[in-house]
TrEMBL record:
It comes from Croceitalea rosinachiae. It holds the Pfam family CMD. InterPro entries: AhpD-like, CMD-like. Residues 40-120 form the Carboxymuconolactone decarboxylase-like domain. This is Carboxymuconolactone decarboxylase family protein.
Length: 200
């Protein structure tokens, strides 16, 4: 059971309308958002930020953004967000080989050098203490412009919020997210952990 229980999807009409975004992204409204509804200003602000961060403004594809989110969530250990990110990457057209080999992005041939730089940036930016340095900056600028780097950092920062929210909450994970995580991450030991509904 989560620290705070999610509210009914119909609790706040404005949140419900905005949350239609997640029907495309995940196929359901996440329990994290339903919990934020306890203070609707937070749920609404979060959804609008999510939509802005995930909008396509350049060459950073929707699939790559979700893989950036997965690397960030993996670095922080949030099982809930790992599952959501891999599910969204699948739904937004990530190549099957990339989904199957996301753990090996640094060496697997399905990932380009530009993607490796973006994913390494996500890993370094998500660590505590922060590990972003001159070397990753140089690699990023070999492949990406400033606006695209801002998009990537937007995803990393958004998931920094989500990782803390969901791991502190022990947010109950939804069936669809479990299915995707088991398919792509289970072979590497992914499990629900504190998000199985029995925490606290």
């Amino acid at each position: 059971m989560a620290l705070v229980q999610p509210l009914d999807p119909n609790h706040d009409a404005d949140t419900k309308k905005l949350a239609e975004f997640f029907n495309e992204t995940l196929g359901f409204c996440p329990n994290s958002v339903l919990t934020m509804q306890h203070r609707p200003a937070i749920s609404k602000a979060f959804i609008n930020l999510n939509k802005a961060v995930m909008a396509n403004e350049g060459r950073v594809t929707s699939a790559l953004k979700r893989m950036i989110a997965w690397v960030s969530s993996n670095a922080t250990g949030c099982r809930y967000c790992q599952a959501h990110a891999i599910r969204a990457a699948e739904r937004y057209g990530a190549e099957q080989e990339q989904l199957d080999n996301i753990w090996e992005y640094r060496t697997h041939p399905s990932f380009s050098e530009a993607e490796r730089a973006a994913l390494d940036f996500s890993l370094q930016a998500s660590q505590v203490p922060n590990a972003v340095d001159a070397e990753i900056k140089e690699r990023l600028y070999q492949h990406w412009n400033e606006g695209e780097i801002v998009e990537m950092l937007g995803v990393i920062s958004l998931f920094g919020y989500l990782n803390r929210w969901n791991d502190s909450q022990g947010t109950d994970i939804e069936d669809g997210a479990i299915e995707s995580a088991n398919q792509y991450l289970g072979k590497h030991g992914w499990e629900k952990g504190k998000h199985d509904g029995s925490t606290y």
